[in-house]
Amino acid sequence: METKMIRLLSKDKQVRIFMIDNTSLVSNLIEQQQINKVCQETLAKTFTISNLLCGLLEGNQRLSIQMVCSNSSESIRCEVDSSGNVNGYCSKALLESKADTIAELIGGRGYIRITKGSETGSMYTGCVDMPYQNITGDFSNYFRKSEQLYTAFQCYYDCDKSQKVVRSRGFLIQLMPFAPEEHLTKWTGWIDEHKMMIEQLPLEQLIPKVFKVADIMAIQPIRLFCGCSREMFYGMINSLGEKELSDIISKKQTVEMNCGICGKSYSFPYNEVAGLIMGG
Predict the structure, then answer these.
(1) Tens digits of per-residue pLDDT, 71-107?
(2) Which of 22, 87, 92, 241 sits at 20 to 30 Å (Cα–Cα) from 3?
(3) 265-269 and 254-258 as β-strands: parallel, antiparallel, unpaired?
(4) Count: domains in the chain
(5) Quick one: 135 and 242 in the same domain?
(6) 260: domain range?
(7) pLDDT tens-digit readout, 223-259
């Protein structure tokens, strides 16, 4: 599943703007995990911002992004790389959270940890607290404190009464080196003024209407990706106890296994299980 991120640069070369409509990706991601409404929105916004960060990567760089709540067992992890491969998932504890709001879910001791890796093996990790408890403000705070980059994020997320994702969009606004800080305020204010169009119009139509003082620098594919496969679970099946394997085959049962990263489910019927045991 794939979408596209549009990367813009203001005509005065002071600000870069990335925008993405990843409704299909977020919808697919949430369908793979049983998530309540608050966790759903938290994952959607964290994942959307992570998608936007692909545009800041070069070469074969990759990012591992963690949003950790005050209860450290409650977290969201997203993996992205410079090729536009993205994924995200919630910890089991977060899926079981009863929080009524994002602020309550994050709590007073939440933090963001981002690890950047490259093909040379070098790694850098930044860790910053979440004083705003609202995802977008906290990621802006992360970039200001950890990266010394003035950056703003805006996310537009909505779901219907059945919690089906209706809309997921995101914007990154970042000052270029030595650009005055007021340019960031100007652009975020401009986007707020045109909120209705930004929520409703296709991204391509926004450029001449809202971003006409910016040029398209690149259109980058962003795809939901996980390297899991059926073969990865063969070892887990072979590691099941002898009695359990015998019962599966004799009772003609099917083994269900889920990828812990993307949530994809794999089914192994009893005859395939028998073949794996004989082959092993």
Answers:
(1) 999 999 999 999 999 999 888 899 899 999 999 999 9
(2) 92
(3) antiparallel
(4) 2
(5) no
(6) 230-279
(7) 988 777 888 888 888 888 888 989 999 999 999 887 7
Strand partners, 101: none
* Cα 144 to Cα 146: distance, rounded to the nearest angstrom: 6
Contact by Cβ (8 Å): 8, 169: no
What integer is the mean pLDDT of 52-75?
94
CATH number of domain containing 151? 3.55.30.10
Q: How far is CA 107 from the centre of its chain?
A: 20
Predicted local confidence at residue 279, as pLDDT: 62
CA 73 distance to own-chain centroid: 18
CATH assignment of the domain containing 253: 3.90.1280.10
pLDDT at 92: 85
Indicate if 176 and 247 belong to the same structural domain. Answer: no
Same domain assignment for residues 23 and 157: yes
Report the interhelical angle of 37-53 vs 136-146 (nearest 10°). 40
SS3 percent helix, strand, coil of the chain, rounded to 5, is 35, 30, 30
